[in-house]
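The passage that follows is intended for readers who have already worked through the single-chain material. We present the inputs for a multi-component assembly, then the predicted structure in tokenized form, and finally a short commentary. You are encouraged to pause after the input and sketch how you expect the pieces to fit together before reading on.
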Amino acid sequence: QVQLQESGSGLVKPSETLSLTCSVSGASTSSGRYTWSWIRQPPGKAPEWIGYITHSGSTSFFSPLKSRLTMSLDSSSSQFSLRLTSLTAADSAVYYCARSHLLYAFDYWGPGILVTVSS
Amino acid sequence: EIVLTQSPGTLSLSPGERATLSCRASPGVSSGFLAWYQQRPGQAPRLLIYGASSRATGIPDRFSGSGAGADFTLTISRLEAEDFAVYYCQQYANSPWTFGQGTKVEI
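Having made your guess, compare it with the prediction:
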């Protein structure tokens, strides 16, 4: 059974950097069939796709976040990570990692991690 | 960017009734790359429908999707208690992948 689990800092100060990791079990992050995505959801709002990384390390990012965003993948540990710099209150949200497929959209999600940007 | 507009914002129904949710895309979504998700309070979204009309693994057959191009529909044939939740459509035809603003199905 495919499972994803987010971990990382839940409280971050303004202007600082958010670092999150997603641990994957039951699926191989080295498979070329899938991409590995981050999605965030501000309280009471719709989800927003942030970006994805492929098994080979190629990335695609949501343009408004591109200058602040880095993603990496470590297939040996079945983990992929997100790094978002220069945080503001607008970045406060539940952050989800998810498996994405060309045909099947986001078929597996982690439970999410609440990130609050506050001093 | 493809903008998805869902209607209605809230749907008030009773168990056993039929729910019809709409998702309009502008511009249209090619090749039916449209998905529907269910989100219960405090939980991650769950994939219900992909490719506009294919049910994801383990999804009951009371959930069905239809549509193409600019207009898509999610139908829940007979509402059960656990179906009262927020539903989102999402397109994955073009980057950035975008979500609709959601329809809340309430009792």
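Commentary: The CA atoms of residues 84 and 105 of chain B lie 5 Å apart. DSSP finds no helices and ten strands in chain B. How closely did your sketch match?
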